[in-house]
Amino acid sequence: MQMNTFQKEFIMGMFLDNDNACTMNRLVVAVANIVSENNDNLDMFNNALSESVEDHYPGIVPVTRRINGFYETTVRNFTDDDYAVRFKMKRSTVQALINFLKDYVKPGSIPLDKKVHVFLWLLVSDCSYNEIGKLFGLHKSSVSYIFNEIATHLTQHSYNFISWPSVEEQHITRIKVNSRFKFPNCVGFIDTCRFKVGTKRSKRDKPDIILLQAVCDESLLFLDIHIGEIGKTRKNRVFKESALAHELKNFVEFENHILGDSEYKLRKNLITPFTSEELLTSEEMKFNEFHWKTRSYIGHAFELMKERFRKLNHIDVVKPESVHLLLSVACILHNFILMHEGCSEVKEEAVACDDGVTINTSIVQTALEKRQFLCNYINYIDAEDL
């Protein structure tokens, strides 16, 4: 309770004898002033916290102590629209996630449905374990345990959600991509996304960077992911350390390819744009334009995941293995949601006949020759459409 001037004078009158006061009495007055100042500071902190949380989650007031019943009486009674706003997915999708986890998460004192919502709240907000614990009536150690428990189960079964497509599935992708962007024989798109890692408590500490490498298809599903080491920021180096670098030739037939930017090394199955210290030809510039537009799928996939999971804006985690776990499970949930809800941002293309191009391997043998062949083909097709 804040002390006014009258209350301070009253205390001084009780403990001070005229102009002379003993050391103990002065100490009491000093303590009274400190208590008053601390109450002022606490009020300021709570007001600031309220404004911050209200901005992120309208209608939810932050608490300074653990409360009970928030999940049971509030979250469960969200309207479908409010639920989708809070958790960035439909209620039916979360229920599907709960049903999947039933076979793996052991029963305990905290019901599985509550665990899943605590887990998701951590991902879709930038709140700490402590803040989420107070909101859901749990200790922060319980929140940490819940997150690691569910994230570990999901990553152990990641093959159910992230896997390289079959030859038939790749064929459908290349038809859809060619139908939309006129880039032939493309079955995926590769790039990396940068994430800030490190504590947010000290502004003097510059956050580290970690790269997430991913390949996606035309529906923005991740087909393959690889997380680099914290501090390594070169795409091609992260690619070389990934299993994909060694398996790509087995995953993608010679006629097909994935697209990557110029920071990757040109390969037979990884086509990059033309780069040169000299001016590019008009044909090469045309190829690069088509390449850039077609490759935009992977950028959209990363943007969608980061918009959905606010925790990724700054990964306030210390242990490298925890950072890897967080990024891995975010990718898994990204796919899980798309599998159940699709993506309104993706234009659905009709699957018709394959308008790809057949590449004669007796003529086209190297990566450079393949890129030049694709360049010639794209310019020819583009000229025909004029």
Automatic annotation (TrEMBL):
Cofactor(s) this protein requires: a divalent metal cation
Keywords, sorted A to Z: Hydrolase, Metal-binding, Nuclease, Nucleus
Gene Ontology MF annotations: hydrolase activity; metal ion binding; nuclease activity
InterPro entries according to UniProt: HARBI1-like, HARBI1_dom
Main location (coarse class): nucleus
Source organism superkingdom: Eukaryota
The UniProt record lists the keyword rRNA-binding: no
UniProt xrefs under PANTHER family: GH03217P-RELATED, PTHR22930
Family membership: Belongs to the HARBI1 family.
Protein name in UniProt: DDE Tnp4 domain-containing protein
Organism field: Mythimna separata
Lineage: Eukaryota, Metazoa, Ecdysozoa, Arthropoda, Hexapoda
